Amino acid sequence: MANAQTLAASLNPATSPDTVARAELREIDASARWPVIIFLVSGLIWLLIGTGFALISSIKLHTPDFLGDYQWLTFGRARTAHLNSVIYGWSTNVAFAVAFWLMARLSRAKLRHGGLLIVAACFWNLGVTIGVIGILAGDSTSIEWLEIPPYATPLLFVAYALVGVWAIITFRFRKSEHVYVSQWYLLAALFWFPWLYSVAQIMLIFEPARGTVQALVNWWFAHNVLGLWFTPIGLAAAYYFIPKVLGKPIHSYYLSVLGFWSLAIFYNWAGVHHLIGGPVPAWVISAGIAASIMMVIPVVVTAINHHFTMVGSFGALRSSPTLRFVVFGAVNYTLVSLTGSAMAIRGFNEVTHFTHFTVAHAHQGMYAFFTMVMFGSVYYIMPRLLLKEWPSATLIRTHFWATAIGITFYWVELSIGGWIQGTEMNNASIPFIDVVQHTIPYLFLRSVSGIVITIGHVAFAINVVWMLFARRPAGATAPTLFHPPAALQPTPAR
Amino acid sequence: MNRGPLIFLGIFFALAFSWTGVVLTNQIQFGSLTPFYDQNDGKTYPEKRSGLAERGRLVYQDLGCLYCHSQQVRRPGFGADTERGWGDRQSVARDYVNDKRVYLGTMRTGPDLRNIGARQPSADWHYLHLFDPRLTSPGSIMAPFGFLYEYRKVLGERSPKALKLPADYARRRGLDQPGYELVPTPRAEALVAYLLSLKDTYDFPEAKPYVPKTGGGAK
Amino acid sequence: MSADISDRPPGEPAGASDEQLQNIHSILLREKPEPTEGYSPLPLMLLGLMSGLVFFSAIYLGRYSGGFDPLVYDERILPGMLEAGGPPAAQDPKIIGKRVFTNCATCHQTTGLGLPGAYPPLAGSEWAQGTENRIIRILLNGLSGPITVESKSFNNSMPAFGPLLRDDQIAAVLTYVRSEWGNNAPPVSPDKVKDIRAAVASRSGPWSPDELLKIP
Questions:
Q1: Which chains touch A (3 or more CB pairs under 8 A)?
Q2: What is the interface pTM, i.e. ipTM, of the complex?
Q3: B124: distance to nearest CA of chain C, Å?
């Protein structure tokens, strides 16, 4: 492949620096091609596997005898297999892919030693596969978000070490003087995750802490995987794609700085809110609640930043798949985080703790925010890696509407069901079995929304596979959009 | 915000701050909490579990029971845990010092189990309930654990551990063949032993319930 | 982009076909520039919101920190408050009885109707409404063997609750059972439970219904 300079020069010897910069991006994309594709495809496979386990688990809750004879599929194992497939399988694989691509682009440095990353992908996916099979076989540790049996975790460590080394190298060789906001989030996420995981492994599995100190470590770890690993990567993607697709700058650098540091300081104390009312000292619970309330600051700041960047360009949502998925995700980030701050208040928590409300909240965060932002990112990245367009706008449309409607219905109805469950559970004159019975319609509706979401995933998978195997087009191509952009609409003749 | 080392330092201290506060401080404050020795009884509480119950704990772990059942009682007045008879008092850290792995749980699809050994001390009930929850609790959505049992030919005498199924239920499920019995496997026995060991009935000094002062003098 | 060899810089291999170049150019040129940041100032409202939140959180943490004492689990307690409350007021036996009954409900059900073929009903039961000498013994030591309740026969085991429940709890739950679901029998007093507990102190093992029927 010709290098950036000659490529740009082939257009016109007097090319602008802007075009040279774009040619450079082309080179960077080419260097990133195989590592990112491998992580993306692995992620997609895990998404489908995780969706399968999700449906099985959801059905088992309202129809408990469904597949009831199979020990390896008992609810406690199927649900755990679902969680680990979507967290460490789908979400982390796609997070790696998007993080690398963003880091390479923003550093304006080619992805060096892509072979390292391909090896890392193999180790990571091998580890998760062995882990999920181990869970189904009965070796789950039953530590929430850390259920992968200890025999599989060394593989994950090797994979991550390779990723960490690579990320530092790429950042070290960056060409840009200015470190864009997305890069802060990516660097932070890549540094924080291994620290969290290592502490959890040591203090819960290898040298377990005594008594409920375990619970504190567990929820410091698990909540921070959400807040300090997935959230920064999702925000990094949103901070890149919204201004990139629109061609506008982010509203305010100062808001970005404030948002980043307030998230860094407050988010990691919030994990204790999973233990409100529990057998841990009241002071650490109150600290967790205080931090959860303070989280309103980074959330509001980010919302303002994104909103004012979008203002005046909402019309672009009609045409761009990337923008639509990412903005859907960003809006849900604001909603789910504000709900989370509310859930930490003791009075609210008294009702929602231990109920399906929490499950709805978790899915709104990991799916309606993180996964939807990742979908949008994939729709932008793949054409640039493969130099092909998405084969079918109809499939993208199906994917969007099925997942958007599915997940919104999911978290709304299950929140209602969970709230009712919590209110009734706090009323001792209502027998527990009645409380359970009243949740069943909501659990059934959750299975229905799960099927709708699955349709979206299948549409996505078909589009990806089709795109991978399609022949590279010969001539100039136009992006696959929902509708032609307004600027290109033919104006009626006067 | 363009200097790599500064950003790194900030990122490091951000997580170090919460790691110190949430993890390290608490490990120092109550990470070496010991069981409480009662002079009058001459025993330490909480009492240790039997070997069979420890094996049962591993069955509880591998089947993922904590994803539907919590094991923590909240204080009176916060939720209805004590009103529902799930415990006499709030669970405290000392209740868990002998637990090799703590299964506090975060879901109550099913009831809290911290004191199930005190609340439901009948092993027979547990065997029936685990075999088919809807047998003892109509309307329950709990998973059936039939694979923890064996339907086998009676060898000589009927086993004393054989489940006593109600006649019409046995007929409906085809479990009423003469000369056959339904017995729990060792995993089921261990699990039930574990469940029966779950009782936090000792009143530690720090677990005394707090009764707010009501106007005037308290005493 | 002509095919004339003399147009190419010397020594530079042809990296891509003309068609590919054209394709690349179209994707390359349509992309917007890399994102940058604008410099709009912080809204004043935000500073107000932040100050409010910091103030609120600080007060919250101060009030509900329990003096940062690791043995304080109830967030309402502040240092020096632990002994202030005094013993809790004595509770209505019916409330205690209803709460203890949740133990029994797993078998006898909250409706008191039991489970046909498995657990006898308590609602309308002649045993429950009969002499307290028998039912106190059942609760203390358990029951095992064939029994007839409301003309239906059962053959099961009930565990002993003597070691698990206090006298006042046993009295309360029996009082509850004897006055609920249309049952109408006199309440049971904790002193009576205490007497019977002393009388059967040497007994181990559950009662059989035949043994109990011999007790007046």
A1: B, C
A2: 0.93
A3: 8
